[in-house]
């Protein structure tokens, strides 16, 4: 068994290395001086070590504004998604009505409709509503992918909860709505938190819609702003990498918090068979 | 009752998905130019693209990009799952660590890989390593060659996507009944044999689902290619989504731009129908 053990260790080392090298590149570059980057001095470690990219990013660019826009968008979209997704997920998992199965398939199909097909016509629809060039366009368009995905996850979570608890609540004279809010929601909380974090991450990282629907530089989100940093006059790679660190850390923190639910939810949603 | 619960979802679907899809189809039959009213032109956009050399290139590039990334993801995903399956201590920790690319912003991933492949500023990662190892003496601008650029977008896409495959396959491996392995061992099967005859058949279903899902996502990818190459050099890495964007927002031909993505619809319908069949069978 020993050679297999060694192979496992080597394989694990290789995978960890493959995953970590780009992250290390980002982090290391974010702490280098402009000269160090331009002239490829001490490529592998930041020496001298500097915070100037972070301070420069914060003071000289509109990054704080972009960060605010991203945050506002992600929070609003997460709230919309959680409400719409929980209601629909509950209905499909628990209520008996004609066409229940078709709603379930519809949700899956919607989840697979690619943004690449929707961005041009959505732009026209949003423009007619007067929503373009403003974060409203993102509040309206992001749920087109977050809601199907989160509803799909939530159907699984709701189905896994014991039916008896809800029935006990009905016996005690509760209505559907109280049964949902008082009994089921607290039980489903881990699933709802996990799906909310998914919605948050998806909006936080979205690029195509944000690029197309908003031109005003004060209204754009972080991913679009990062692209502006390199297509400006000067290549601010150090600042760009600092921005990448700042943008990635909150998502990784959230993710560590839900990693287990997330993996189980994913596995239950896409793999079970 | 159920209708009330589903109402918000239905409003969203009709107003922001179904209606735009209808608009996309009707737009593809017009010669809509930004700033001009649209005129019905029938199948003109479709016929134009069928004879357009750039579009032929787009189809080829998309095929190379998609097949390349998806097959790499399947192979390394299997490798990752096998390795994690053999790790007992800290398995959850390593699974979480290896999933990091999957939650990181695609734009950041694309920017980073672009720089790692490029020779400017500084020397980029691959140039630095290859020079320091003595493999070459001067930096190569990988991103400036058609093959290098295509390789770079495939690698970046692979890196982002393989952890998802790995996690799915790991979950699948853990649901293969242990008795099957025991029975195989009793029959004298070695590790390689057990992998071929027990593990792989047990994973068949998941492998098909992940390939289908990833195929749909990858052939529609915009972010990686747009950020890394803008479809260049020339049109060497132009794929469906980036070409559609280019035609609609740089050439301002919306009718034709939307037609580019509509060419993918038949393929999408087949893909979605297959995935639904596999996934919905499990749901109940």
Structural description of this entry:
The complex is a heterodimer of chains A (273) and B (284). Chain A is mainly α and 273 residues long. Chain A has 2 domains: 1-50, no CATH class; 54-270, Orthogonal Bundle (MetI-like fold), CATH 1.10.3720. Chain A is built from 13 helices and no strands. Chain A has helices at 2-30, 34-38, 52-60, 63-94, 100-112, 115-128, 136-141, 143-160, 163-171, 176-205, 208-213, 222-231, 237-270. Chain A is globular. The model of chain A has no long low-confidence stretch (mean pLDDT 86). With 284 residues, chain B is an all-alpha fold. Chain B has one domain: MetI-like (MetI-like fold, Orthogonal Bundle), CATH 1.10.3720.
Task: Offer a quick outline of the entry.
The complex is a heterodimer of chains A (273) and B (284). Chain A has helices at 2-30, 34-38, 52-60, 63-94, 100-112, 115-128, 136-141, 143-160, 163-171, 176-205, 208-213, 222-231, 237-270.
Q: Termini of chain A, distance in Å?
A: 31 Å
Arithmetic mean of pLDDT of chain A = 86
Strand content of chain A: under 5%
Total number of strands of chain B: 0
Q: What's the helix-strand series of chain A?
A: HHHHHHHHHHHHH
Question: How many structural domains of chain A?
Answer: 2
Structural class of the helices, strands and pairings of chain B?
mainly alpha
**CA gyration radius of chain B, whole angstroms:** 23 Å
What is the CATH class name of chain B? Mainly Alpha
**Biggest protein-protein contact in the assembly:** A-B, 95 and 98 residues
CATH H-level superfamily of the largest domain in chain A: MetI-like
- Percent range of helical residues of chain B: over 70%
Specify the CATH architecture of the largest domain in chain A: Orthogonal Bundle
C-alpha geometry of chain A: globular
CATH-defined topology of chain B: MetI-like fold
**What's the overall average pLDDT of chain B, rounded?**
89
| First-to-last CA distance of chain B | 22 Å
Low-confidence stretches of chain A: none
For the sheet with most strands of chain B, the description reads: none
How many helices of chain A in DSSP terms? 13
| CATH homologous superfamily title of chain B | MetI-like
